[in-house]
Write a structure and sequence with these properties.
Chain A: Pfam families: CDC45. The complex is a heterodimer of chains A (569) and B (186). With 569 residues, chain A is an alpha/beta fold. Chain A has 23 helices and 16 strands. Chain A is 49% helix and 14% strand. In chain A, the strands form four sheets. Chain A has a six-stranded mixed sheet. In chain A, strands 2-1-3-4-6 form a five-stranded parallel sheet, with helices on both faces. Chain A has a three-stranded antiparallel sheet with strand order 8-9-10. The two termini of chain B are 20 Å apart. Classes of the chains: A alpha/beta (569), B mainly alpha (186).
Chain lengths: 569, 186
């Protein structure tokens, strides 16, 4: 069931208990977890934090902890599958789920006792009404009252033998029941067909903090990072992003107003969050401007930097703005002040000439101490790189804890190491995109495009992780759409496969919806993958919380693809 | 003594806070605290104030001496005199550090205060060093210094005592045959 008053029905219930926090591995979940941890520290609530990477992890964690805990809080996991059936909990376990995955499973919505959803009810959910999908068994005996047959065969006035009347009524009931069931299947199919994302979990927990008046600037910053993560990884539509940014902007002005209205200004060490209409260049303040332009998806795709022509256009672009190459190629902080002052406006003007109308995006930046300035997207890239770092001897939970630490203001070295890793990751993505396009590795299979990364590809280890591979997939599709002349291919979705584990012989497969300006980011590959796997009995593992990311045995790749082609044509 | 021990002792000083919760009077071994009412100032020890501040349950009111004009006067006085001027609080250094680390958003002009306190500290430590140097070089038997705080004493204690011990050993080895001077390796 949906929770209406998050303070009374969630926080005050768990505040005196020991709670288990099961947190999924994405940045939004990390930010939400940080906010909740901050609140728990204020009220000295005992909790256990368990990072989970997939359904199997979730089940193991639940089994380990179900004896000691009654209350479980699930962050960014658990809403889109029938949780009670997957976990088989005891009757007194209560689950609080704050998940961005949609559609929310209908059993989770209509269960009144054990599952509480920390999701706003108007959040674009479209849950089918109760009566359309559930039917109490008593209605069966209710007999004639519920069965108005459309043919209008009214009970005839003539007195027939009672048995025949009853048999007729039973046949009518069975027919109505079959019709109801067919309609139910259709409704459920429509409801569960497309997978998409809702409001950020970090935002939900920030609102809880706000209601408790315990919201600090740190929590506000984490909420902004959670929202920006959804935008960077292309999980929400642009409209929703802008709406949520406006909500955050209200909170930011409230905080800024509260602290700056005395004539005595704040210490330089205090955190200042400001609204920025900043450039869509990844990490440009921590890199050189040139590198950032070459390695950001938006500019790289629009200039087509993998071609010679594209490189020339880039040089023209820089010349048009009057930026000398020497300045542009050195670290951003060392660029001339005169260039840095009007940089954003100058770039916007020139990029309009080159067809890039949206080079600026609304976002937030933070500023504390004398030299620490970060944009929200910088933090997202850094933390994502730390979360999915492929160093040896590091388990998933180590990476989780490191990424969680990097979000605190006191761990700046970790954040800077994350930024370095993110730079390497972005460069690797650009090089892979360039080589895939130049060697025509993307083939059209009919209803979708397909690309397979061979084992020897440089940096292919980076792409064995779901978030990195999804990012690569999205950039590749954008680049492909810009580079191909085939109009039909521009509207196709993309499936990408990369080797995940060489010893076990498995690949990770990701499917993303087609690229378009007004895309609603709804992904149908979850169901498609399930059906294809069933029909060919391929050995697949649907472990990830995003159903459009699966693991598959290398040998079953071709038959799986053939099944998908037949399914989707 | 460790500087952290001195800081621990400094945390017993009282400071005014404005809580946002309510609680009846609590009876602790060290004394009574409270009652706490939202919006009404109450005096509590610094350790409790910092704990409540970190749990977002109060707002700390800076002590009366933590003000830019007052500290500027004290700094000028310190620079003029050769002896030690009266100090704003016996634990001024530790309290400044603690309050500015955890509650700098409640203290106006925090950066200037930090600079001023550091200036005062530097002047006093310089005077202390000068005084210790002249004490040793003039082979005085005793000295009296007013208005020193525990943190300043603690800073110079180890060095002064060790150097006096060293001088004693050297001096006692100069006397022929008085005692078998044992040279220990440090």
């Amino acid at each position: 069931m949906f929770i209406t008053d998050i303070r009374k029905e969630f926080y005050e219930v768990v505040a005196n208990q020991r709670v288990a926090l099961l947190v999924a591995s994405d940045i939004d979940a990390l930010c939400a977890c940080k906010i909740l941890q901050g609140l728990f520290h204020c009220d000295q609530v005992q909790y256990t934090l368990v990072p989970v990477t997939g359904w199997q992890d979730l089940s193991t964690a639940f089994l380990e902890h179900k004896e000691q805990f009654r209350y479980f809080v699930l962050i960014n996991c658990g809403a889109n599958v029938d949780l009670l059936e997957t976990l088989q909990p005891d009757d007194d376990s209560v689950f609080f789920i704050c998940d961005t995955h949609r559609p929310v499973d209908v059993v989770n919505v209509y269960n009144d006792s054990q599952i509480k959803l920390l999701i706003k009810q108007d959040d674009d959910l479209g849950v089918p009404p109760y009566d359309d999908i559930f039917r109490d068994e008593d209605d069966e005996e209710g007999g004639d009252s519920g069965n108005e047959s459309d043919e209008g065969s009214e009970p005839s006035g003539k007195r027939r033998r009672f048995d025949e009347g009853a048999v007729e009524r039973r046949i009518d009931r069975q027919r109505a029941k079959r019709e109801w069931e067919a309609r139910r299947r259709e409704i459920l199919f429509d409801y569960e067909q497309y997978e998409y994302h809702g409001t950020s979990a970090a935002l939900m927990f920030f609102e809880l903090a706000w209601v408790l008046t315990k919201d600090t600037k740190d929590m506000l910053w984490w909420a902004v990072i959670g929202l920006t993560d959804q935008w960077v990884h292309d999980k929400i539509t642009h409209m929703k992003y802008v709406t949520d940014i406006a909500t955050m902007q209200r909170h930011v002005s409230r905080h800024n107003h509260r602290n700056e209205d005395e004539e005595n200004s704040l210490s330089i060490d205090c955190m200042r969050i400001s609204f920025e209409y900043d450039l869509r260049l990844a990490l440009y303040q921590h890199w050189s401007l040139y590198e950032s332009i070459c390695n950001s998806c938006y500019t790289s795709c629009n200039f087509k930097l993998w071609t010679l022509n594209g490189q020339k256009k880039l040089q023209e672009f820089l010349a048009d703005m009057g930026l000398p190459l020497k300045q542009v190629k050195q670290k951003f902080n060392s660029m001339d002040m005169s260039i840095k002052e009007n940089l954003r406006d100058v770039i916007e003007e020139s990029s309009n000439k080159y067809g890039m109308k949206d080079i600026r995006i609304q976002t937030f930046g933070v500023h504390f101490g004398f030299k620490n300035r970060f944009l929200a997207s910088d933090m997202v890239h850094a933390t994502a790189a730390l979360l999915e770092s492929t160093e040896k001897d590091e388990s998933a939970s180590d990476n989780f804890i490191k990424a969680l630490d990097s979000l605190s203001r006191s761990n700046l070295e970790r954040l800077h190491s994350g930024i370095d890793l993110a730079k390497k990751k972005l460069m690797a993505i650009q090089q892979t995109v360039a080589s895939c396009i130049c060697t025509n590795l993307i083939v059209s299979q009919g209803p979708f495009l397909y690309c397979y990364l061979m084992e020897g590809t440089p940096d292919v280890k980076l792409f064995s992780k779901p978030m990195a591979l999804t990012l690569l997939c999205k950039y590749l599709l954008k680049a492909f759409v810009h580079s191909t002349r085939n109009k039909r291919c521009k509207l196709l979705p993309l499936i990408m496969a990369a080797p995940k584990d060489v010893e076990k012989g498995s690949v990770i497969v990701v499917g993303i919806p087609p690229e378009s300006e007004t895309s609603d980011k709804k992904n149908f590959f979850g169901r498609a993958f399930e059906k294809a796997a069933e029909s060919t009995s391929s050995r697949t593992l649907h472990d990830n919380f995003d159903t459009s990311i699966i693991e598959l045995k290398t040998e079953d790749r071709s038959k799986f693809l053939d099944a998908l082609i037949t399914l989707l044509s | 003594m460790d500087p952290s021990e001195v800081e621990f002792l400094a945390e017993k000083e009282t400071v005014k806070i404005i809580p946002n919760f309510s609680l009846d009077k609590i009876y602790l071994i060290g004394g009574d605290l409270g009652p706490f009412n939202p919006g009404l100032p109450v005096d509590v020890p610094v350790w409790l104030a910092l704990n409540l501040k970190q749990r977002q349950k109060c707002r700390i009111v800076p002590p009366a001496w933590m003000d830019v004009e007052k500290l500027e006067e004290i700094r000028e006085l310190e620079r003029k005199e050769d002896t030690f001027a009266p100090v704003p609080s016996p634990y001024y250094m530790e309290l400044t550090k603690l309050l500015l680390n955890y509650a700098s958003d409640n203290i106006p002009k925090a950066d200037e205060i930090r600079t001023l306190v550091k200036d005062i500290w530097d002047t006093r430590i310089a005077k202390l060093r000068l005084s210790a140097d002249s004490f040793i070089s003039q082979l005085e038997a005793h000295a009296k210094l007013d208005n020193l705080t525990l943190m300043e004493i603690n800073t110079i204690r180890a060095f002064l005592l060790d150097s006096l011990n060293c001088m004693y050993k050297l001096r006692s080895n100069l006397q022929p045959g008085s005692s078998k001077g044992q040279f220990t390796d440090y």
